[in-house]
Amino acid sequence: MYHDHSLKARLLKMQKCYFNTSYLLFCAFCSLLQVSYSTEKQIYVPGMDKICLIKKIGIRQEILNSIGLFMSAASFKYCIAYSYSDYRRYNYSIFAYNEKRRSCSPLYDVPEENIIDNCSEQLHDLQFYKVSNCLPAEGFMYSFEEEVEQNVSKFNAVKLKATNEICIVERHPFNENFLLKRTGILFHQSLEMCLAHCRVLSGRGKCSAVLFSGEEKVCLLLRQNELLQSRDVMRKGASQLLTLNYCYDSEFENFVLIIYKCKIL
């Protein structure tokens, strides 16, 4: 009888110990998750040409009912630009984003008390983000470069149908764009059209380089006041920084080809 009581007491202690250990592990996991949620990161938003401070947050369940219509086929950076405003009620903006569906919805007038970092309140397929501030990108000193991109061709010949030219362009590391003067921002479907627009303005000294963001279809026109650094290492990025080194008439290339063919014949 005594042996049974002793065994039950030991089992009860083991259960309590297991519960306490599990609870501590859960709390540790929750704390790590909260840190990942509450850490701000900097992200370049091409549509605004700004650097935004953003972090992942939680939203209380009752706020979900106030979510409005979703935009479809929206990129994450486009959603930041769409939801952010310098003239907002609070000193931050909030939006919901579904990466799988590429859908986005701004949340307006969400008080600070409805923003949570509690991992016990998980939300469906949506992720919620808080944008605390966005600053002009020109002159910004920060490295956004990621992993090294292999087998990158720094120099390429691009045919510009709009100007009937072939231009030699040079690719540079993304971070160097912050050193260049902004002269305009356009929305073009292709890199070719972006370069052609820059080429037209180059005669007036208004453009010598472009920052093209393919996903956002944003063409940023830039002007160099000094030569950019030449570095062999190129890193992956969503935007390409290209300088127009020189251009020549595409008819000249056709003329050379005709002469070459005549010599062969």
TrEMBL record:
It comes from Trichinella spiralis. It comes from the Eukaryota. This is Apple domain-containing protein.
